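queue> pop job 88
queue> type: inverse folding (structure -> sequence)
queue> payload:
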């Protein structure tokens, strides 16, 4: 009789564990589904990521203009050069002024900072500036932009030109080169409005 009672208790305990295990399994599946739902799909199909983008060599074509634009899925900064360019390095992190090494983060609006190093000068062959900015000047008006907060000139030294681009958060970005207008070329920086739908 005792053995029969012991077996009954053991069966009840095992049944309870099996039911709990099934619930745990369901909970895991639910957690996985919730995680997938929380992850969501990429915003506007953007899969750019936020890692460093570096390509190309130095060019002698000087910087001619900087402007910004708003788009449905991203904000854009365009660096236009008087000639062909191909080289840049863009990454999140502290930006230092060219030549003197002053950190620009205290002077740049935004919760994240993109360090933009263009592999071309902002001066001509006579070392005269080709853009009207001085170190620390704002190079584009980004008032009412969803993502961009600031575009600050960091100077030009030994063929490199630097900008600190302040954004509201660390967000996906892309960089690419476009030919034109005319003999000019452009390095384009796009920063997405958000990560996920």
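queue> result:
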């Amino acid at each position: 009789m005792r053995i029969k009672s012991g077996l009954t208790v053991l069966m009840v305990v095992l049944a309870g564990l099996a039911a709990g295990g099934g619930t745990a399994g369901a909970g895991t599946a639910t957690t996985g589904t919730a995680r997938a739902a929380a992850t969501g799909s990429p915003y506007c199909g953007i899969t750019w990521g936020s890692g460093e983008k570096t390509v190309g060599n130095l060019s002698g074509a000087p910087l001619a203009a900087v402007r910004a634009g708003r788009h449905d899925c991203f904000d854009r900064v365009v660096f236009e050069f008087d000639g062909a360019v191909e080289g840049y390095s863009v990454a999140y992190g502290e930006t230092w002024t060219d030549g003197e090494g002053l950190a620009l983060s205290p002077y740049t609006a935004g919760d994240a900072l993109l360090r933009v190093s263009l592999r071309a000068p902002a001066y001509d062959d006579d070392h005269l500036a080709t853009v009207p900015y001085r170190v620390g000047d704002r190079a584009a008006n980004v008032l009412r932009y969803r993502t961009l907060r600031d575009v600050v000139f960091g100077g030009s030294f030994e063929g490199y030109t630097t900008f600190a681009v302040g954004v509201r958060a660390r967000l996906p970005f892309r960089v690419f080169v476009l030919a034109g207008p005319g003999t000019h070329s452009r390095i384009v920086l796009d920063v997405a409005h958000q990560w996920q739908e």
